[in-house]
């Protein structure tokens, strides 16, 4: 694309039309730009348009956004995720170099709004090319910084610093590698000194402006923002390790850092217009820097520590009282927490300091504020994410408790004593005036819950602050028994959270007495309250006694089951809870525990299909949707297995929904729909109803298998059909279609395991007379994979398949069909693949199958295989049966390749409750070890003397001893 008046006119008009409120011109413009973006120098032309002063600012801003997105997509394009999607044409190297030569100077000439877009575009380039493939960038930025600071143009200075900050952020988030350290050294060599010089110059500018009284708020704001950006760059450059330059100049940095924590700037802080937020942003950045040094360079930082602790402390006492200073409060408390867990913890030892921490820092930050109430009411999902799911480490409430936990590492008794006193005081204040002082009770509950310690590897929590049962009875129970479920909802939420957290410690009779009250709270108007009630019930049903026995059973919940289910489904109709994942998870858990009568089953399948029909047109919440399908699966499993007459009723309810998913191409739900259909097919008795045969036809279409996410669920459904309707395969060439699917799956390492699942089900469920015309093609496919691209996983699956073939259709058919493809290939396959891979088999059914088949092979193949191969096979069988799995697998370095679920695309989610029962093709064999020695002893009696020599010459000493031990255990001998 050449830059000329026609291009200027074309691009200007297109970008103008992209801003149109009318959809038609907007779509035409977007399509024209998409087409133009495939042409060379398109990005360069758009950049030149952005720089054209004669073009309207709005059009240039739209062009700048397009330029940034163009670079994101094409500077280093990644291959498309889905097949048959064309790749984007990358930007040519010549165009890249021209863009890099222009972007910095153009960025600095333009308005702040456009400048920020070009700064982001520059960061996109930097992510791939900086610093080694763009060595001129930092010197150019440094030169600009020098001239801009001399001109006192801090608007542009901050633009450049923001760009550098974006470029350097990678040093904070990437793992330390040699490549990263090379990049870091390059940046330190070129920017550590200019950064310090700029920082010190701005220090002087601020001091002069404040000292002379000449500073106006707008100018001072620019200076302070410049220092904040310098601090963020400092953090990036020091994150991996302390560079020598910064160690040499530590005093210069630390003196100014401390000043920013202690000095006030009234002109800015009292001016309104977010002046205080700008200064606090600088202070927060300083706190992060000193926290970093405290963590990484404690020894070098020690001489500054007490001064910083005092400065941060003083700042916190003031800022904790203000709800608008959250970021500063959090970073400041984090710094003190780091100190409290270090060797310098004695700074917190004194009683008066602990008292002040509780009074001036912890309680003010834990106490609910207006914005907490607003979040509770307006955004319940975010409130729960922070409050119940522990994602609130960066909020005042949680971080204040983390400080107490940090101090308690060394002064547990003192912290317990002080906090217990605070809890009593809060509860006393509440008792004086419950209506007015309810937040004090919330504060007390929050302190207990947040400071409780979780036992490693379990859900049990403990606390020394209170006696759990007494606190529960006196503080929590009154809230749970309150008749008005909508009064003081935040207190109710806190009480439910306490019940949930301490569920293991509370006696069953105490919890059971209150469960009907928790069920009442499902009807609360507050989304948080009914979510917490659902979560409380769901977690209670998971409690186990003595490790494995569920504490709460179907008998416990049956008296109020109908009310519980009714309230749960009603909660899903409340505003904003239509896709409430806590409610749906509770439904799933209750259905997994309860005794499901016909009435309950009927009401639940109706309720669940109504929800499914509602979410189908626009699936939004994947967690909710997963629990929805799990709920349907568990209901099918528990109701229909108990009462098979319910199957047709369930099919009548579910089929329209499943057909809607397939007909409307709701791709997110395809794997779920196929798994539910598998479940229903498996529950039916032959002959399978006609409406399933129609689905079978869809299943055999090649288009159904194109999306990898669907493959595991489709295989599962195909297996269900093969087991339940094997006679259907003899009709209309369906077996040929099934084996075509196998052939496609087996050809790729990502789906070959799924291909074996299909093949094994065919071999297991069809007679040899039916499959014999196809066996030759099957071996050709398998031998091709064995020749080109074999993996350990493939070879183990091949051993399992051959074992299944042998036990189902006999050794003779196995040998003849293999050798028909290639002369004597059976002997080669056994010697080179079966024998060495047998010892790597895992899974109880697979282990039994392969060991029994291998035993049959030894006993039945004396004319087919020489004694050495049979001896080595016996050695592998004994290894398989006598050694623990981890010992056997460690012998094979690339074993991790087996069991990799590469075919399970990230969008495939397995339904636990729809899982199929593992089929055992050898139900008649109980003990494979006994089968081995019994078979060999029996065979040896007819050919005495053959086995002792074979064992002596081919089995390892440990396996000879293991075989002897097995013979002794079963009182058999191999002669």
TrEMBL record:
Coiled-coil segments on the chain, per record: none
Superkingdom of origin organism: Eukaryota
GO biological process assignments: protein export from nucleus; protein import into nucleus
The entry's keywords: Cytoplasm, Nucleus, Protein transport, Transport
Subcellular location(s) of the protein: Cytoplasm; Nucleus
Domain Importin N-terminal intervals: 29-109
Any single GO CC term annotated in Swiss-Prot or TrEMBL for this entry: nuclear envelope
GO function term, MF aspect, one: small GTPase binding
InterPro entries per record: ARM-like (IPR011989), ARM-type_fold (IPR016024), Importin-beta_N (IPR001494), XPO2_C (IPR005043), XPO2_central (IPR013713)
Predominant location: cytoplasm
Protein family (similarity comment): Belongs to the XPO2/CSE1 family.
UniProt-recorded name of the protein: Exportin-2
Organism: Nicotiana sylvestris
Phylogenetic lineage: Eukaryota, Viridiplantae, Streptophyta, Embryophyta, Tracheophyta
